[in-house]
Design a protein that fits this description.
The complex is a heterodimer of chains A (343) and B (451).
Chain A lengths: L13 E2 L7 H10 L2 E6 L5 H16 L3 E7 L4 H12 L5 E4 L8 H9 L3 E5 L14 E5 L1 H13 L7 E7 L4 H17 L4 E7 L5 H11 L3 E6 L2 H13 L6 E4 L3 H8 L4 E6 L2 H16 L7 E4 L2 E3 L4 H9 L5 H19 L1
Parallel strand pairs in A: 1-12, 2-3, 2-4, 4-5, 5-6, 6-12, 7-8, 7-9, 9-10, 10-11
Antiparallel strand pairs in A: 11-13
Helix pairs in contact in A: 2-10, 3-4, 5-6, 7-8
Chain B lengths: L2 H15 L7 H16 L6 H8 L3 H13 L3 E6 L9 E5 L5 E7 L3 E7 L5 E8 L6 H18 L5 E8 L27 H9 L3 E5 H12 L8 E6 L3 E7 L2 E2 L14 E2 L2 E2 H5 L1 H14 L3 H10 L4 H9 L3 H25 L3 E5 L1 H21 L2 H4 L3 E4 L5 H15 L2 H7 L9 H17 L10
Parallel strand pairs in B: 3-6, 6-7, 8-13, 13-14
Antiparallel strand pairs in B: 1-2, 3-4, 4-5, 8-9, 9-10, 11-12
Helix pairs in contact in B: 2-4, 2-16, 5-6, 6-17, 7-15, 9-10, 9-12, 11-12, 11-13, 12-13
Classes of the chains: A alpha/beta (343), B alpha/beta (451).
């Protein structure tokens, strides 16, 4: 996938693989033994674990110590307090994913003003500027992910059918971009499709929202959920009611991967590559700490995953072999298909 | 005492009693507007300060503030600094009483945002778009995304739209009058873009050229914050400049100030030599004839080259690209030097895709030429920096344009008593006029489509 979106200030993307440290830069970085802290919305999700793995491994390769990982548990106030505390600590750089939009901007800017290098993941809060307030934003191409999900779902929507969007009811840049891109792709390529939408503010609301959408829209032929966790909440809620409907979503979480392997409701995924994103964020951080010019927006293209290549995609995305249950399911489905074909 | 003399004294007394009191609706509107702007700009926020700065009496100030609290324009805020006695209550402007929709339309992208009534950006979105898709497609896209953003982010209803367009915008002859998009957007001639936008959202539209809004954005929130004299230069496919002089944007007689891309470099126009397309063309020639191995590889890989590739090659030490960008920088600097000598700015900000990609080589070339050709006093404290705001400068500037227009004393007096500029009599008339014009053209309204 190429990069379709623009950066938080309309920047053209610099692909993450173009950010590389030269041999001399690497020697300098190792000699200076930087210390870095990471502030995440949560540390428990599959995405966060891989993001952290990418950051830690790349920093470690360059003798930079990951001295603290803060889990904000989706709490804006917790993030503000953590950033204020880190501004007083002798860390050279912080890699942070802003949780809210405007509410966390001042705390992030203050961190930069304290002399710390700041690299943001996913987005810059509105009003923050590269250079003055942060060094760079390292993000997946969320716009591209939304387009992918629309294109994969489109195959399941009949002419003049209806598709639903399970949207996030919180002001969050990444999910906004995905939804805008999904809608734009549908309006351009499938103007015959009617779009409906339900929102959830809490994860537990995703299942009821999906059910409400199905209830309100007879003939709903597919759903796009803005990330994998609410997508699986929707899958469970719909399955309990005996409803089977094609769903596309973002990120190849374990549950989503297993559902795809079993040829469940999840028909396609636009996946981020969190390990690679973490590694890129670490390289950008090191470059900024060495005083090298860093682009304001570094982006990674997502990867489309279908039930046919879920095992290979799993390896690429998670840098791990797929779990046994996924492999077994894929093989079971494949042999069932073969036996169907021979009968 | 003669009767005639008595009459004269009575008249004089009446005149004295009227000092500081509204003698008409107009005077009341003027005092409301004055007080609102004092609070809004933070010049005076307590009742005592407001009385002193406005030279209005205590009762008048109390009455006007109460009126504006009722209208939802002001609210009572926190306690201020006590100067002996009780700490005074500070008045606050309700910047959330409405919202401003802002957009920057460029050759290959559109940017949209929602700002509060102080011009502070609350949300923004950027996406690729082709101007040659035509005005109808761009209008649909803007309307669709604005609808979605307003609903999704639950922002208050809009009070105005600020638009930045790729080309000079003629000054309107009167307030709230939409102006035609000028010749620079050729396929848009005669298309009632601003009128349609205004009718679609039911708010006034204020348009400026992209470079003028970017200049205002840089002055408000970028490198030019707090400076009264600065130049912004946009280096993209076209080249233009904006000027803030003594705190005000200079628009020129027709609104077309700043078209420095039309300066001559030998036989060519400046933008035909150092514009983004011209640089990309030079790069392709160098890729072909082997002068730049990096560009040759990039071209083979991608099948095309842009100024971004040339900037990246320069950063990686490709000598041809370093030299090309340095040369382009010097040519831009030579065009800027006379302007610098003329206006004596404190700061020159370089923005646009060529600046974002051009790196240090380009900036060094600009500095070299400007410093060499400027008077020592002019260049003594002059700073030349690269913009950090990207396309956001245009959004911030467009919001600032709307704020300055809506709260200009002459316009503010026309609506402050109604609580919203949408009830300004001139705007109401303008809407009726535009509706009639559009009906006579039988132009279909912009339809809503999915964002």
């Amino acid at each position: 996938m190429s990069i379709a979106g623009l950066g938080p200030h309309g920047e053209r993307a610099v692909p993450a693989d173009q950010i590389q440290l030269s041999e001399t830069d690497a020697i300098n970085a190792r000699a200076r033994r930087f210390s870095v802290a990471v502030v995440l919305h949560t540390t428990t999700s599959d995405w966060s674990k891989q993001e952290l793995a990418g950051i830690a491994a790349t920093l470690g390769l360059h003798s930079a110590a990951l001295v603290e990982v803060v889990d904000c548990n989706f709490d804006v106030d917790l993030q503000i307090a953590a950033l204020a505390r880190l501004a007083r600590r002798p860390v050279d750089a912080v890699i942070s994913i802003p949780i809210g939009n405007a509410r966390v901007a001042a705390a992030h800017s203050a961190l930069t003003q304290s002399g710390c290098k700041l690299v943001l993941l996913d987005n810059a809060p509105t009003g923050m500027l590269p250079g003055a307030d942060y060094a760079s934003v390292v993000s997946t191409d969320n716009f591209g992910l939304g387009q992918s999900c629309a294109s994969m779902l489109s195959a399941h929507i009949p002419a003049n059918g209806a598709a639903g969007i399970l949207g996030y009811g919180i002001d969050f840049f990444a999910t906004h971009e995905r939804e805008i891109a999904f809608r734009k792709w549908m309006a351009t390529h499938r103007p015959d499709v009617t779009l409906v939408r339900e929102r959830f503010a809490e994860l537990e609301g995703a299942g009821p929202a999906a059910l409400a959408m199905v209830d309100k829209t007879p003939g709903l032929s597919g759903i796009f959920a803005v990330w994998d966790v609410p997508a699986m909440k929707a899958v469970r809620a719909l399955a309990e009611q005996g409803i089977d409907i094609p769903i596309t979503t973002v990120d190849l979480g374990n549950e989503v991967a297993l559902d795809m392997a079993r040829h469940g409701m999840i028909k396609g995924v636009g996946a981020q590559l969190p390990y690679d994103q973490g590694s890129a964020a670490a390289r950008v951080t090191l470059a900024a700490l060495l005083g090298l010019p860093v682009p304001p927006w570094v982006a990674l293209a997502g990867r489309e995953v279908t039930p046919g290549d879920v095992i290979e995609a799993y390896q690429v995305i998670w840098h791990l072999p797929a779990p046994r249950a996924i492999i077994d399911s894929v093989q079971t489905m494949a042999s069932a298909k073969t036996s169907d074909a021979t009968q | 005492m003669q009767p005639a003399r008595d009459g004269f004294v009575a008249e004089e007394k009446t005149a004295q009693r009227s000092v500081g009191r509204p003698r008409s609706v107009e005077a009341a509107q003027a005092s409301l507007a004055l007080l609102l702007n004092l609070v809004r700009t933070g010049t005076a926020t307590t009742r005592q300060e407001l009385e002193r700065r406005s030279e209005l009496g205590r009762a008048v100030v109390a009455d006007r503030l109460a009126t504006m609290i009722d209208l939802g324009l002001l609210k009572e805020g926190e306690l201020g600094q006590a100067t002996g006695g009780r700490a005074p209550r500070q008045m606050q402007f309700r910047q959330d009483a409405g919202s401003l929709l802002v957009s920057v339309i460029d050759q290959s992208s559109i940017a949209l945002g929602i700002a509060d009534l102080n011009g502070q950006m609350l949300v923004e979105h950027h996406e690729a778009a082709q101007l040659d898709a035509g005005p109808e497609a761009i209008l649909d896209r803007l309307a669709t995304i604005f609808d979605w953003l307003l609903k999704e982010t639950e922002k208050p209803a809009p009070w105005g739209i600020g638009l930045a367009l790729p080309g000079p915008i003629e000054k309107p002859v009167s307030d709230f009058e939409a102006v035609p998009v000028l010749q620079t957007v050729q396929s848009w001639q005669d298309f009632p873009f601003l009128e349609r936008m205004s009718m679609r959202f039911g708010v006034p539209v204020f348009a400026r050229s992209g470079v003028q809004t970017m200049t205002m954005g840089e002055a408000k929130a970028g490198g030019g914050r707090g400076l009264s004299d600065m130049i912004y230069v946009k280096l993209g496919r076209s080249i233009s400049a904006g000027l803030i002089s003594e705190g005000h944007l200079h628009r020129g007689a027709q609104g077309a100030a700043g078209m420095i891309g039309h300066s001559r470099v030998g036989e060519d126009l400046l933008e035909a030599v150092v514009g983004a397309d011209a640089i990309a063309r030079e790069g392709m020639i160098a890729a072909e004839d082997g002068r730049s191995p990096y560009l040759a590889q990039a071209w083979a890989r991608q099948g095309e080259l842009s100024v971004v590739d040339i900037g990246h090659a320069a950063q990686l030490g490709d000598l041809f690209c370093v030299d090309l960008l340095g040369r382009c920088g010097r040519l831009v600097g030579e065009a800027l030097a006379p302007l610098t000598n003329l206006v004596n700015p404190a700061l020159i900000v370089i923005g646009g895709v060529v600046s974002e990609s051009g790196g240090d080589s380009l900036l060094a070339g600009i500095r070299e030429a400007v410093y060499r050709q400027s008077h020592p006093m002019v260049s003594r404290d002059l700073q030349i920096i690269r913009s950090q705001m990207g396309a956001s400068s245009g959004l911030v500037g467009a919001a600032q344009v709307v704020v300055e227009e809506l709260f200009a004393p002459t316009i503010l007096q026309g609506w402050v008593g109604q609580g919203t500029p949408l009830r300004h009599p001139d705007f109401q008339k303008s809407r009726e006029h535009v509706a009639a014009t559009l009906a006579s053209r039988a132009a279909p309204p912009a339809e809503r489509v999915a964002p």
